[in-house]
Amino acid sequence: MTDLLNIMTPFGWCVASIVVLSLLGLPIGLSMIGSSVLYLLVSGQDIGIAAEQLLNGLNNSYTLLAIPLFILASELMNLGSLSDRLLTWCNALVGRFRGGLGHVNVVSSLIFSGMSGSAIADMMGVGKLTMEMMTKDGRYTPAYAAAITAATAVIGPIIPPSIPLVLYALISDTSVGYLFAAGVVPGLLMTVVMMALNSYLAHTRNFPVEPAVPMKELLPLTVRALPALLMPVVLLGGIYSGVMTPTESAAMAALYTLVISVVLYRSVTGNGMYTALLSSGRQMASVGLLIAGALVFNYVVTREDIPKDVQMWLAGYELSKYEFLLAVNVILLVLGALLEGGTILLVVIPILIPTARALGIDMIHFGLVVTVNLMIGLITPPYGLLLFIASSLSRQPLMAVIRETVPFILVLIAALGFMTYVPESVLWLPRVLGYQG
């Protein structure tokens, strides 16, 4: 292990270069590519290997096509009137209880997560609308509205479809379909604990009770929202019936959203479509650059046999699989507060996977534990990305948003602990669908 920390080795130069370039402001993807090329030069290898690894990794990963398609689908949802219709329906369903708009926030994020696969898309779409609804006429403090909106957005990549789970499938060689199925129960558990916390805070702080929508209006509102509500059913039904692969389901998600928004709701103009395509392209360029950097850097990690060295180092501590999972949770929660989740997923997790396999940890279970950790990192100070977005949208000081977010972080960590030590909470649904792991 001490050899890994020696900066005078080619690998040491590579790691030091990544740190320096990142601190200078270079995107992490470019930092990894540049540092990997430096490693090849210092170790006397052909620098063309970097391009070879990048192209081979992208050409052999058909599953990666799902990512830009899910991004496009979420952009079209935010652009059209789907978010408004879903929000109106959620308000009719749960808005009548004390703290009802907080419950609307949680439930709308749960439903929207079945379409977008992205926490940021959730935050910028339906989350932005619910935040405005909560703060209208001073019903809730802007800081609390921002905090619960940021916290509920983390459900997005847990409930299928999920962009992080697609990336995890790439690095772990596991089934995207079973990973999607494994996210359902954890996503519902996260929803329940956040609704319970919101209910407790609503009674403690005497949050307002919204006027109840008459039950006779619920059916018409359901009919208006039905095309949007059916989207997760169509996608997941297609995957688990064998009609579509996960990548094909992503294409169907984009097409389904386009047809609903343009033909049925007529809420997307030509300029709006251009804006959605442009935004999707920019987001995918950012994700693609990170993936490209990880593919090249993973060659360096494999060449240096880092996973085996880490496995042997951890073996010296004779950890059980549950002790290892505890250590992974602590490490990822700390890293998640400091680094971008995609970087951790594509760089750190491949190093831990061999040890997890050696300890007999199920890869589907491990993938969900990892993903939930990384999503909690999005709302963990000091560098939780969703905290900055929430602070910006609500025009509230960052510290005020952080204070209100802390209770949500704690209940989410408690839910994470349950998923970690009760594997069946994650694996039950995949096994119902035929998973044999």
Uncertain segments: none
Helical percentage: over 70%
Strand content: under 5%
* Classification by helices and strands: mainly alpha
* Cα distance spanning the termini: 32 Å
Number of separate domains? 1
Number of helices: 21
Question: The biggest beta sheet, please?
Answer: none
Shape: globular
Q: Order of helices and strands, N to C?
A: HHHHHHHHHHHHHHHHHHHHH
Q: Averaging pLDDT over every residue, what do you get? A: 83
Radius of gyration: 22 Å
Notes on the protein architecture:
By secondary structure, the chain is mostly helical. The chain has one domain (46-432). It is built from 21 helices and no strands. The chain has helices at residues 10-23, 28-42, 48-59, 66-79, 82-94, 100-116, 119-135, 142-153, 163-172, 176-182, 184-205, 215-240, 246-264, 270-303, 306-315, 321-336, 341-358, 363-377, 385-394, 398-421, 424-432. The longest helix is centred in the middle third of the chain and has 34 residues, at 270-303. It starts with 9 loop residues before the first helix and ends in a 5-residue tail after the last helix. The relative contact order is 0.14.
Feature tags:
globular, mainly alpha, single chain, 437 residues, 21 helices
Brief synopsis:
The chain is an all-alpha fold and 437 residues long. The chain is 76% helix and 0% strand.
Secondary structure: elements and pairs:
Layout: H1 10-23, H2 28-42, H3 48-59, H4 66-79, H5 82-94, H6 100-116, H7 119-135, H8 142-153, H9 163-172, H10 176-182, H11 184-205, H12 215-240, H13 246-264, H14 270-303, H15 306-315, H16 321-336, H17 341-358, H18 363-377, H19 385-394, H20 398-421, H21 424-432
